[in-house]
Predict the structure.
Amino acid sequence: MSAPVISVESLTGRFSDQLLASADSGGCASSSCGSSTRPSDVDPAVWDKIKDHPCFSEEAHHYFARMHVAVAPACNVQCNYCNRRYDCANESRPGVVSEKLTPDQAVRKVIAVANEVPQLSVLGIAGPGDACYDWEKTKATFERVARQIPDIKLCVSTNGLALPDHVDELAEMNVDHVTITINMVDPEVGAKIYPWIFHDHRRYVGSQAARILHERQMLGLEMLSARGILTKINSVMIPGVNDQHLIEVNKWVKQRGAFLHNVMPLISDPAHGTHYGLTGQRGPNAMEMKALQDRLEGGAKLMRHCRQCRADAVGLLGEDRGQEFTLDQIPRELTYDASKRETYRELVADERRDHLAARSEAIGMVKTASSGKSLLVAVATKGGGRVNEHFGHAKEFQVYEASPTGINFVGHRKVEQYCLGGWGENATLDGVIAALEGIDFVLCAKIGNCPKDQLADAGIRATDAYGHDYIETAIGAIYAAESGGPALTATA
Ligand code: CLF
Ligand code: SF4
């Protein structure tokens, strides 16, 4: 099967004028095209909500981008993994927000991004405090953006404490996607995570605080489910505190209609000044995360492609273009221009159909291979679902597992970029190899002999033979070769 290659620039960086020019102007209308790629086991109404949402659909995250606007700095909870001088650790990796925005500034920024980043499909408010507690700013931002860009999806992330007070307004504003961070369903566990909450004009501490938070979270989730709003649960995995307990959390949220459960590793560093960071509480390693996620299979559906983004992140998951859109770079007067986003959607609809066909062929082949093997494959990609990044340029690898159940995305590994200015440092390579612990194969668009040999010494085989091929096609070919069967041919 042959498929067109979308240029790397179109998917990960500034939109290529050449690509826009080459798009078939007689193609189908923007948002309806993707529906033909709906998997047979997904309800059409649900598919319509998730097909362009990079967090709620793993497949969509290869093509669509989100942006966050940091309009909600106030918070009503203290989490032991958060330092208020930093991003909300629930939805972001720790790192200061470059600038907090007023709702009007946020609208300007969203228009600026929508005009330049055609992949943009979702506007999220994820802090840096709590979007439901700092409600007036959240609401004003959503209302103003929806008037300017009606087809952008609105998404909100919250600790859940103030959520029940605003569910009806969320429904009225057509907010289809809500995330609640739920780390416990037992207040005794909660007391080890939350030193205090502020609720109903009072401060509560200890297990009483955790009990109130728990009850409000469950109520909010039930209210959202009753209104058909898709709800994702984020849980921070804290070894020795709630790691085993998250199995119970998964059961509770599934019973109450959660659409996805996203278990994220605790990020704990003394430099961030958090309670956990300062008291030596460690986060889980990649294999511990995977082991827990594997145990959760069969419960609430898991999200495994979260990048723990900043509260002011812009771009595809895993990239951050926020620094290109600081207020000082955005004109005071701006008009929304829908043309790039519309053209991109037409182009991507065709690409997604080809990708899904190739993916299904590769998965079918892996399922019928009778070896019973399980392979972990790390892929260097810039987006578009293809093996299209050089090994030395990768800042993360997407990890897939090929096994008799098919080819499944199981996570990502962040690494320090090994090759800078055409030169790679051995110490950096050692770090990359350590981050790839447990991986059997690395797939990339290009790799030199030196890193390839060092990876081989660590028991990891690397190849650039499938450069620019679809990820699943490349993995299927490797799996077939490992199983002693015929390999699929490359599609690029
Ligand atoms: Fe933002 Fe969160 Fe909406 Fe996505 S992020 S508010 S659901 S648009 Fe996504 Fe980022 Fe993970 Fe959040 S990768 S941290 S899950
Ligand atoms: Fe920090 Fe978010 Fe927790 Fe509030 S809810 S304390 S901002 S991590």
About this structure: The radius of gyration is 22 Å.
